[in-house]
């Protein structure tokens, strides 16, 4: 029926798709189950899957079973590291004020 994703950072989302792998070249491609963390750290991700069912007696019409069954996955540990990419057309000699050219500060 549905999937509730608890991302471990205080946010969650409910989808009707279970998610799945993406092509290895598809980094940073949004999917229905994507989540963007706002801070780095270690998080416990869990997934709750909600099932519904129907039944039939002696070949009769199917009837819905009242309620849903919730199955919670084992937590999945994730370490989130923040990265940011930039495309530049000049190096730091050509543009000392460019992205990543400033000297580190203490």
Short description:
This protein is mainly beta and 106 residues long. The protein is 0% helix and 31% strand.
Structure description:
With 106 residues, the chain is mainly beta. It is built from no helices and seven strands. The chain has strands at residues 2-6, 12-15, 41-51, 54-55, 63-64, 69-72, 76-80. Strands 1, 2, 3, 6 and 7 form a five-stranded antiparallel sheet that branches. A two-stranded antiparallel ribbon has the order 4-5. It is elongated, with a radius of gyration of 23 Å.
Mean pLDDT, all residues: 86
Name the helicity range.
under 10%
Unreliable residue runs = none
Give a quick account of the main beta sheet: strands, pairing sense, barrel closure: 5 strands, antiparallel
Order of helices and strands: EEEEEEE
- Proportion of strand residues: 25-35%
| Overall strand count | 7
Q: Cα-atom Rg, whole angstroms?
A: 23 Å
Coarse morphology: elongated
Count up the helices: 0
Main structural class: mainly beta
């Amino acid at each position: 029926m549905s999937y509730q994703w608890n991302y471990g950072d205080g946010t969650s989302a409910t989808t009707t798709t279970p998610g799945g792998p993406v092509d290895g070249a598809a980094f940073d491609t949004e999917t229905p189950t994507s989540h963007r963390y706002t801070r780095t750290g270690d998080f416990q991700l869990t997934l709750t899957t909600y099932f519904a069912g129907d039944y039939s007696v002696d070949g009769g019409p199917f009837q819905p079973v009242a309620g849903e069954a919730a199955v919670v996955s084992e937590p999945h540990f994730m370490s989130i590291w923040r990265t940011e990419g930039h495309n530049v057309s000049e190096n730091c000699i050509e543009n000392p004020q460019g992205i990543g050219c400033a000297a580190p500060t203490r």
